[in-house]
From TrEMBL:
Lineage start: Bacteria, Bacillati, Actinomycetota, Actinomycetes, Micrococcales
Reactions catalysed: a quinone + NADH + 5 H(+)(in) = a quinol + NAD(+) + 4 H(+)(out)
Alphabetized InterPro entries for the sequence: NADH_UbQ/plastoQ_OxRdtase_su3, NDAH_ubi_oxred_su3_sf
Keywords: Membrane, NAD, Oxidoreductase, Quinone, Transmembrane, Transmembrane helix, Transport
Provenance organism: Nostocoides australiense Ben110
Main EC class the enzyme belongs to: translocase
Principal cellular location given in the protein's record: membrane
Similarity section: Belongs to the complex I subunit 3 family.
EC number in record: 7.1.1.-
Official protein name in the record: NADH-quinone oxidoreductase subunit
One annotated Gene Ontology cellular component of this protein: NADH dehydrogenase complex
Length: 128
């Protein structure tokens, strides 16, 4: 009897996972059915034209963007990853971690500071 109950407890996790998957599929099917029911079906000239951020396209469509925005994106990603790594580590560090983990985080922060110093030296942190 105990082995049957143990097997049933293991099956409960699969039942919950299957239920979540089933609800997800039902929501997807409901969204597609609502789109099919309520979406307009007539094709107009306006629905076939390109629409970009509220601006009608003019010219050839070739435009150059400045590379500095890509650098800002990279800097954001670097510091977002830094925060994503450091906050969980700080929560765990409230317990008792050894010197090895402290050294690892010191190396990690050191690499981030080297990247920040490099960005500052190249003038990437100026808002002018």
């Amino acid at each position: 009897m105990a082995s049957v109950l143990t097997r049933l407890r293991g099956v409960e996790a699969y039942v919950v996972a299957a239920a979540v998957l089933g609800v997800g599929v039902l929501l997807f099917v409901a969204a597609m059915a609502a789109r099919w029911l309520f979406a307009p079906r007539t094709r107009t000239v306006a629905s076939g034209t390109t629409y970009e951020s509220g601006v009608d396209p003019v010219g050839t469509g070739w435009a150059q963007t400045q590379v500095r925005y890509l650098v800002y994106a990279f800097l954001y990603v670097i510091f977002a990853v830094d925060a994503v790594y450091l906050f969980p580590w700080a929560l765990v560090a409230r317990g008792h971690l050894g010197r090895a983990s402290l050294v690892e985080v010191g190396v990690f922060i050191g690499i981030i500071l080297i990247g920040l110093a490099h960005a500052a030296r190249r003038g990437l942190l100026k808002w002018t």
